[in-house]
């Protein structure tokens, strides 16, 4: 009889492990975040009526954040350099929500112009009175081999992605400390904790952000109601490739390639908002095999280095062949045509 119960127990365990394995194969986020998406609080319950300041709101993830937050009744501060694109996003937000014109502030912002950041922050506070959530989304990627890239490109990436984000955060943080509550969320990247060939400067800037915000979180241990959250997406459909730095300042990407193999922006943003609503400190948002790669880097770094070399070599081959660097990892890329 005991043997029968043991067999039943082992069979049950095997079925459970098989189900979890299958779930992981089809997962597109870390298990903590997927648990929150299934059983946690909804973005509607946490952000309706709140004031959220989004940098990089004129396209891509920033635009989709604006649209999804507007749809649940969040008041918004939309910032980026291109005021005309911000106005377009604002119109879309108003069309898809019950918000009024005064509920959305278009606030043009250049992250590299740090001298303007106190004035911009004051304008946001004057309009709404409070800033409940700051989403640091502004920034640019990189597509270039290190050996070909000018040092000026590395400086620009650090000025924009790292120092610009730190500057805005330092303007908003004292306000949140006085209130004793708030959320500072930063769109980092999987490249914020793994190596990314063709993006050495971008990865460096994202690693810097991870180090800064992980350290800041500990400094704020006396302010437990201020959440510091790092969002780490893998490849996502957006304009980030088209807008990436290359080996020279001002030189555009020759071709962005096909982006359809990447995660949808809508799904990435939905998971991001779920994570923030449930106070997740770090989120990995990526489809396979990139999600598995995150876990390998976290728990088996020796294996991670080996896989990085294999996949990194393929990424460089894709780049040299003129296709998207993140596509066709397991197939031979077609040669670049003239």
What does this structure look like?
The protein has 338 residues and is of the alpha/beta class. It is built from eleven helices and seven strands. Strands 3-2-1-4-5-6-7 form a seven-stranded parallel sheet, sandwiched between helices. Helix 4 (60-71) packs across helix 9 (265-277). The longest helix is centred in the middle third of the chain and has 29 residues, at 151-179. The relative contact order is 0.13. Residues 333-338 have low confidence and may be disordered.
Please specify the SSE layout and strand pairing.
Blueprint: H1 2-25, H2 31-39, H3 43-47, E1 51-55, H4 60-71, E2 75-79, H5 83-95, E3 104-106, H6 117-128, E4 133-136, H7 151-179, E5 182-187, H8 200-219, E6 226-233, H9 265-277, E7 282-285, H10 290-299, H11 301-321
Helix pairs in contact: 4-5, 4-9, 7-8, 10-11
